[in-house]
Structure to design on (232 residues):
């Protein structure tokens, strides 16, 4: 399992949570054809049932949740407590051939939020199965729903996310991936350890050990285009 923080090139102001929630829940604009299926979805710390899949409810639900999240962000900004982007968007990716259940997707989302310090925040998640790798999009509202204060993104959050993936692999029984954290077998059972890139390369744990070290944008381009990037 691998996790990636998705950042927007445009600012949050004027856009709100609506666009990202419509993408998350596959709410199509008029004229889009053919419509994509409604994903298996859920939410955390909201009042509705934890899972839903009714296509006729998705557009309305995305709009209602976006309004709630946007209002919380406005109140937080109005008190002078926040000037940044309240949207924290993570993609959790499984290996090809692995297919997480709703319960596993929810567990992964909860675990990630706890590790990042967003355990009391509200969030929406959805499984997308339209690529070779099943993945969960998790959108977190960084504004605390009661205190209306913004929770800071932890420094070097990528490393926290990568350790989360190793922990979830062991807990849920998925195949092990290798990032800055690696799971090694010891006499006392599996142990998660931090390894430098050179250590992973020496152990043959890098997918591109003999090739160039790609930037995050190039890696994302290769994933989206299923072809080599210009940088490679």
């Amino acid at each position: 399992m691998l996790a990636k923080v998705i950042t927007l090139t445009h600012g949050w102001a004027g856009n709100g949570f609506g666009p990202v929630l419509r993408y998350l829940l596959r709410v199509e604009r008029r004229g889009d054809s053919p419509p994509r299926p409604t994903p298996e979805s859920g939410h955390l710390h909201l009042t509705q049932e934890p899972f839903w899949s009714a296509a006729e409810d998705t557009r309305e639900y995305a709009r209602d949740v976006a309004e709630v999240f946007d209002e919380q962000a406005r109140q937080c900004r109005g008190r002078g407590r926040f000037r940044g982007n309240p949207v924290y968007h993570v993609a959790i990716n499984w290996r090809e051939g692995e297919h997480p259940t709703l319960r596993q997707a929810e567990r992964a989302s909860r675990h990630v939020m706890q590790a990042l310090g967003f355990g009391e925040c509200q969030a929406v998640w959805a499984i997308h199965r339209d690529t070779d790798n099943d993945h969960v999009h998790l959108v977190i509202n960084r504004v605390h729903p009661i205190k209306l204060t913004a929770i800071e993104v932890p420094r070097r959050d990528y490393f926290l996310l990568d350790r989360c993936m190793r922990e979830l692999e062991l807990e849920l029984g998925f195949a092990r991936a290798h990032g800055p954290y690696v799971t090694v077998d010891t006499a006392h059972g599996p142990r998660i350890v931090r390894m430098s890139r050179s250590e992973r390369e020496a152990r043959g744990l890098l997918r591109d050990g003999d090739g160039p070290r790609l930037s995050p944008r190039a890696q994302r381009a290769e994933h989206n285009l299923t072809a080599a990037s210009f940088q490679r």
